[in-house]
C-alpha cells in the first residue's frame, strides 16, 4: 500500500529518542524526493539547515546516504538490510518458485505477503503475462481487512491475535466495497476459514480482484499468505471461482509440505 509516509510510527506513541525519529524523517523525505539538498529538506521538514546537515552527514558516514553535486540520496545499503531481513523469512525462501509458477500458469500477478504491525508487507511479486508491472511491488504495504492475502492472514490468526487486530488495527474505507464493520468482517473471516481461501472483490481498488491463502509454518504458526490478483475483467467467472482457486490451494499445500519437511529434517 502506498501512502504519503514511507516510514511508519506506532500510533499515539512519542518516540523516546527524538533524534532518531528526526533521522528517519530525513530518510522518509529522501525516499519520496529521491535526491534533495539541505535547504530543500530543511524547508520540507521544518528543521534548521544545520540540523539537516548533521543528520545527512551521520547517514553518509554510516553508508546509508550518498552525496554528489545534485544533492543527497539514499544508498543501496538499505537494499542490503531489506534483502537480509527478507532472506530470513522461511516463507520467502520456500515459496518463490511456486509464485513464479502461479504467475505463469494463471497469467495474473502473484506474490507473497507477510504480516507485520497490523499490515501486510509484500516481500515477493511476479507480474502476469498481460501486465507490464505488478500491482503490488516488493516493499508495498497492504491493508489486511481489504485484500485477499490480508483477510487470509486474519482468518488464520489465533482468537487473541485477531481480537488485538480489531482493537488496534485501522480499517480504512478504500472503496464502497471495503468491509470495515467488525461484525461483518468477522463473518467474512469465518467463511475464509471454512473454504481455506480469501477473496478480494474491489475492496482495495475498484478494478481489482484477488485470491489469497494463508501459509502456516512447520510448527503451525502463520507465516503470511500467497496471492494472485488481476483486473475485474481478467479475474472473473470461472477464473475467479474455479480455475485459479485450485491453483492457489495446490501451491499452498506444496509450500506447507516443504515447510513441514524442513522442520522434521
UniProtKB/TrEMBL annotation:
Keywords: DNA-binding, Transcription, Transcription regulation
Domain named IclR-ED: residues: 77-261
Domain HTH iclR-type: 17-78
Coiled coil: none
Gene3D superfamilies: 3.30.450.40, Winged helix-like DNA-binding domain superfamily/Winged helix DNA-binding domain
Transmembrane regions listed in the UniProt entry: none
InterPro entries documented for this protein: ArsR-like_HTH (IPR011991), GAF-like_dom_sf (IPR029016), HTH_MetabolicPath_Reg (IPR050707), Tscrpt_reg_IclR_C (IPR014757), Tscrpt_reg_IclR_N (IPR005471), WH-like_DNA-bd_sf (IPR036388), WH_DNA-bd_sf (IPR036390)
Domain of life: Archaea
GO-annotated biological processes: negative regulation of DNA-templated transcription
GO molecular function: DNA binding; DNA-binding transcription factor activity
PANTHER family from the UniProt entry: HELIX-TURN-HELIX TRANSCRIPTIONAL REGULATOR, ICLR FAMILY, HTH-TYPE TRANSCRIPTIONAL REGULATOR RV1719
Name of the featured protein: IclR family transcriptional regulator
